[in-house]
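Worked example 3. Consider a protein that binds glutathione.
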Amino acid sequence: MNPTQLFDPASSTYTYLLFDEQTREALIIDPVDEQLQRDLDALAHLGLTLKWTVETHAHADHITSAARLAELAGARTAAPAGCDVGTAAVQLRDGDTLAFGREAVRVLHTPGHTAGSVCFLWRPAGEAAERHVFTGDTLLIQGCGRTDFQSGSAEQLYDSITRKLFTLPDTTLVWPGHDYHGRTQSTIGAEKTTNPRLAGRTREQFVQTMDGLGLPRPRRMDEAVPANQRSGLRQDAGGAASGEPAPAEGYAGDISPRTAHDWMQAGQAVLVDVRTDAEREWVGFVPGAETAAWKQWPGMALNPGFDAAVQTAARDGRPLMMLCRSGVRSIAAARRATALGLAAYNVLGGFEGDPDEQAQRGRKNGWRHAGLPWRQG
Ligand SMILES: N[C@@H](CCC(=O)N[C@@H](CS)C(=O)NCC(=O)O)C(=O)O
Ligand SMILES: [Fe+2]
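Given these inputs, the predicted complex is written out as structure tokens:
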């Protein structure tokens, strides 16, 4: 059973949708920001429940949709532990598995293109002989990812490809992260015998080739890497910190917690806490905020009362400012309120802020970090 292969022409990126035919649970590999709606449509069309969005590495050429897709589809994010994607819910290490229905993929740590890069191996249930490997930018068709940035190493890439990928059975299907020439798939056997960078080449020859490529920097690198290390959220973008809303797609804009507080004090807009009842009660709440849970615990199922609650919050016609834990659920909530015809902003960083390197919240950004008023429940 083949994965569904989707293509982003602007970056020549392949995104893969894998699913269990019975339970319809799905996993998506390397989704692209600009293709968010296409991917949501594909999930709906195929009747799938997305369980995981996963990354092969922190991309330098395009921005992932992971955080937004996960929020909108109710999935969890996973990224390689060595890629500094502190916002990913699950940090993947070599040998880890991610299950979706009766299916699972296994993580192969394949450093080289970047130090943290991984590939995913999928052996579909009930298909004993079938194997698929999603190689990201480690192995491309008749090529491989470059090794000249993000802790790349030609030596490590050679070892990852020859010792980890080329020891898979020859019939294993290879699904690359990019192709710049319209090719869609290959096999381990074909790459072993015909890939011009690897077939019959020594480690030294390979390193020499890679060191001499002289490729231009990816056009979007400075924007893409930091955004991808936040699962695609560009929370520092635009003038959000200065009091001016930063433009956003599908809702009125992004604002800082300080701006939200100022607007609330001035009576200019209504702060809406979209966290669960449990979070407000256990973690703390903002006096004066209205409440409209986007999801509820247990299970974090979408709250069927959300629409009615935001309509109540907007009863006097003032715009809404959505606040969640770290500014992810609030984007989905702001988009939904916008679809209902309301003006809605997203409060960047949420109540607790993004996790730091030790997965601690409240040390980087967010409402509490800004020293704004809150109380324990
Ligand atoms: N022109 C592209 C360059 C893309 C690029 O450098 N891609 C990386 C993957 S992130 C790569 O390894 N390319 C291999 C190659 O071009 O041989 C851009 O500006 O985004
Ligand atoms: Fe890459």
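Take a moment to read the result before moving on. Residues 11, 59-61, 137, 143, 145-146, 178, 215, 218-219 surround glutathione (ligand 1) (CB under 6 Å). The domain at 240-347 is CATH 3.40.250.10 (Oxidized Rhodanese; domain 1).
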